[in-house]
């Protein structure tokens, strides 16, 4: 049966970097049954501070265009792009997108915070594909949001197409490598960052192995935008057990 809000099929608006090849497939694979996903793109080739900063200028226009598709809610699917300007920028971005689209809007960085809070996580471990500069910005953002970051590990990749070529098995290996010193024995959750990192399919196996919730950027964003659209969704992980 198609997922509907009121008497019409749910339409999810998705704003992604132009080089992102993961968010749309994961939203379509794991999103609500019968829902449709409609994307608008912002220019970005490399995940660097300068390109992320320039990309944010195009977000509002993307939301305005998605409004033409009569979407139920909009998701800005870029983790570092929604935290690049520090604490508070994620909330401002959501407000700007909501005003432009005329429907509820969520941004990945804020969605991750909501997801971790819903899981009652305080101490977390983080795995990313990013360079050290962006890892430190992410650590600062998460700590400002009230989380203790036990460890953060990045792959040092800037080219976004290279990030998109990673497999769920790569994500699983990266997370398990975090436990070399037993750090995962004392965390409440693991966060796999980046909406271009194909990692949502790795969540069930990782949760079974680690015994703690595992949140991905696309998972958190999908969960949050479906809540905003009042759409039921069943996807991998403990997060989706929470309405």
Automatic annotation (TrEMBL):
Q: Which InterPro entries match?
A: Iso_Racemase_Enz_sf, MaiA/AMDase
Q: Which GO terms describe its molecular function?
A: isomerase activity
Q: Which domain of life is it from?
A: Archaea
State one Pfam family annotation: Amdase
Q: Which UniProt keywords apply?
A: Isomerase
Q: Which Gene3D superfamilies match?
A: 3.40.50.12500
PANTHER family in UniProt: BLR3294 PROTEIN
Protein name (Swiss-Prot/TrEMBL): Maleate cis-trans isomerase
